[in-house]
Structure formats: structure tokens, C-alpha cells
Amino acid sequence: MSLWNAQSDAPLSVEIEVPSGDPAADLERGVQLLRDVQSGERGSLLRLYRPDPTLAFGQRDVRLDGYEEAREVAQQLGFAPLVRKAGGRAAAYHRGTLIVDHIEPEAEAVMRQQSRFEVFARVYANAFQRLGVNAQVGPIPGEYCPGDHSVHGLPDGNSPRNYPVKLVGTAQRVVSGAWLFSSVFVVEDSSSLRQVLDGVYQAMGVPMDPTTVGAANDLLAGLTTEAFVSALLEEYREHATLHGA
């Protein structure tokens, strides 16, 4: 029995992708992979990539009066405005972030939906802790795209910034017989993310504290996305057999 799938110990196929240059296509590929796993064409997989600048709105954002203005803000700041099919509020990402799509077949996929948020939050916090980042599970006041199982980081006396910051946002899509757990890890270059999210949330009239927008290297100077990828895969190996990594 795996940590995240009570019905399977199947190996995880790891695919590290290069962004296509088309943020919409990169977002849609996760949904297509979910369909492939649902149909049995593919097995359990872990997809990792560093995305082009994207502002991914949630389904609720689209219904807000300020949504069109928020889209314009994102475009003006160089972030492609898209609407994701998983839940949550607006989130921003770029090459200093890592997106991980974990996709598994599971007959009763909806039954463990809540527990997956809890399990993956612990796994992700542990990955950051391997690198010396004081990562904890839970929301911080005023965070963007708030969630009970966000992962945040706390500064220490040597941190470049002196605020707790959100490090990981997660969303989940469940279909009959399979699930997609999608996560964004913010590792480098938080300033452009802070600028675009502040503008977008103001346009939508959604309260958000821009100081919560940060990156892991705001807490641990010099940390790179490549180092985090290695730490994350090391943490995964504690719970699964990985193929291709």
C-alpha cells in the first residue's frame, strides 16, 4: 500500500519536461495525462516542469466583476492568463517555480480526496526540510490561493526576508478511476510573482497580503530549483519506486 494510494504500490514513472512555450498547452497536458491514466493507456506517473510565466485563475475567479481587469494586469506584466480546471484561487508561476503533476489510477478516487491533501503536504514540507528550509503545513494569514494544506516557510536570523511565505499551493482533479494532484513549488525569484499577484488580487477585490508571496530562496539564500528537484525526488523515494529519475 502506497502512502497516497491504498490500492496500489505501482512504480511511479518520472517525466521531467521542458516547457513548450505555450502555457495553455502545458496546462492542458496535465488533463490529457489524467485521461490517459484513467483509460489505462498509461500507469502512475510524476510529471515535473518549470513553467513559462503564467497566471492561473481558479473557477471562482472567473465570476468576479474584476476578472477581466485582472487578466489585463497579468498580461501587462508578462504572465499568460489562463483558467485551470482544478480548484483554488489565482496563482502565479514562472521558471523559478516547479510544477508537479502526480497522476494515479484508483477505482474509488474520490474516497481519499481529502487525505491526499494531508499526505502530500507532509511530503512536500519534508522535501524542503531536507534542504534546511523551516517548512510547515498550514495556511498563513492573508496568503494568496489559501488552503488548509498549504506549505509555508518560516524565516530564521539569516533569511533574506523576515516574513513567513507560502511555498506550495496544491489543487486536485478527480475523475472516475483516476486522480491528478497538481502542485506549484515556489523556489526562486519571488519579486515578479509578488507584483503580479498583488495587482491581480486588487483588481478582483479579493483580500491578499503581498508579503505572503515569497520563495524558498527568500528564506535560505542561494537555494536553487535544481536542488529542490533533487530533494523532492529523494523524499519521493522514501515512499515509492521511481522509474526514469
Automatic annotation (TrEMBL):
It comes from the Bacteria. GO terms for molecular function: ligase activity. The keyword Mitochondrion does not apply. Residues 24-236 form the BPL/LPL catalytic domain. Keywords: Ligase. Pfam families: LplA-B_cat. The keyword Ligase applies. Transmembrane segments: none annotated. InterPro entries: aa-tRNA-synth_II/BPL/LPL, BPL_LPL_catalytic. This is Lipoate-protein ligase A. It comes from Glutamicibacter mysorens.
